[in-house]
Amino acid sequence: MSADTSLTPHDPYAALRIPDFRRLVLARVCFTVATRVQGLVVAWQIFRLTNDPLALGFIGLAEALPSIGVSLYAGHVADSVKRKNIIIVTVTVLLLCAAALWALASPLGLPLLAKGSFYTLPLYIVIFISGIARGFLGPALFSFMPQLLPNREKLANAITWNSTTYQASAVLGPAIGGYLVAHLGVANSYAVATALLLLALLQFAGIASRPLPPREGEKLSLQESVLSGLKFIFSNQLVLAALALDMFAVLFGGAVALLPVFAVDILHVGAAGLGHLEAAPAVGSVLMAVALTYFPLKRHAGRKLLWAVAGFGAATIAFALSTNFWLSLGLLFLTGVFDSVSVIVRSTLIHTYTPEYMKGRVSAVNNIFIGSSNEIGAFESGAAAKLMGVVPSVVFGGIMTILVVLFTTWRADKLRSLDMTPKKPEPVS
């Protein structure tokens, strides 16, 4: 066996050796840190203005509704327009939204944000606009990444590094955001987020554009093209089961939207402690993703996915019942470890089973299933906390997650038997 064939498939840094992929990774790091800082600051600011957990839920709803509303059309656009152009436009819009939040938190904008939920309306308007931009960005970014790779041999490695660097920046974002809010205030925190988004935009601009993949004889009307992603997902039992499992787990099992309440009223750790709580799941995700870079999931990947989501639900229940800060950190860390398995398996399935020319549309459906379920899950958490109390609502979510796993295990036989063994490399369009 030659040196190339024996070493290349096991090279954990294969994707990072590609210059444009490195630029994409750096851009995503800046972008993710910026949006995580901004998300934490918005949640902290709105909770301080309203002292209402339901107001935190409305943050997620304000972003999810426009994102869902444009997703199917955004997928069509991502398969019809050069994907880099979409990325540049949408990141520019998000940069302007960050600047607007900065302006609203400045001395000139503060009179608009007096105490009371009505006066948080300007913040929700900016979040709504950013939700539209993210609805278009997600499919374009998802489908652009494989185009930077020379062949499918590096695809699994690229997916893992994509997840690893995303989670690493998700660690930095809340920690930085918590520190900035505690020591420099809300306005300066938004200023940092704005600067990081500008850096991300510059890195995205430095990536060479790629032509759209050939559509391989596909001739669809606009309506057929918009709906084709849904048809593809619902005709593939394996991908549908993985997406549905992840969606319902995130919808019911996420406690992240209520972390400001835990930080202030239950654990009594303030803004700095909130940053650590926000970062803990991402720390676990990073470490697991790094481990999967060196030891990728192959045998019994479906069973491991099911156990991981069940573990996510159990750790969520234990977190809800904890009143010790360090124990809570550890349990949130475990939710990140379990979630990382789900993210990587789901991303690998979608990239593997979806033709290149359809990835924008299929990614749009993925965003509806997963991306928006984070925001809708935030609303569900806030509404449940309002009705049931904070701790009971999170316990309920964890129990529902475990029930979803049991149902999926019963119904999705293909997912139970899933193995992720390497396939013969194919060129990426």
Q: Can you walk through the features of this model?
A:
The longest helix is centred in the first third of the chain and has 32 residues, at 19-50. This protein has two domains: 14-208, Growth Hormone, Chain: A (Up-down Bundle), CATH 1.20.1250; 222-421, Growth Hormone, Chain: A. The relative contact order is 0.17. The protein has helices at residues 3-7, 19-50, 53-78, 83-105, 121-144, 155-183, 186-205, 222-234, 237-253, 259-266, 270-294, 301-321, 325-353, 359-388, 390-411, 413-416. The chain starts with a helix and ends in a 13-residue tail after the last helix. By secondary structure, the chain is mainly alpha-helical. It is built from 16 helices and no strands.
Mean pLDDT: 81
Count of distinct structural domains: 2
Computed Rg: 21 Å
Distance between the termini: 28 Å
Q: Strand count, sense and closure of the main sheet?
A: none
Sequence stretches where pLDDT stays below 50 over 5 or more residues: 1-9, 425-429
- Overall outline: globular
The assembly state of the depicted protein chains is: single chain
Q: What's the CATH class label of the largest domain?
A: Mainly Alpha
CATH superfamily of the largest domain: MFS general substrate transporter like domains
Kindly report the CATH topology of the largest domain: Growth Hormone, Chain: A
CATH-derived architecture of the largest domain: Up-down Bundle
The chain-level structural class is mainly alpha
Work out the strand percent.
Answer: under 5%
Helix content: over 70%
**Element-by-element helix/strand order:** HHHHHHHHHHHHHHHH
Number of strands: 0
- Helical run tally: 16
Membrane topology: Multi-pass membrane protein
Keywords: Cell membrane, Membrane, Transmembrane, Transmembrane helix, Transport
InterPro entries: MFS (IPR011701), MFS_dom (IPR020846), MFS_trans_sf (IPR036259)
Main location: membrane
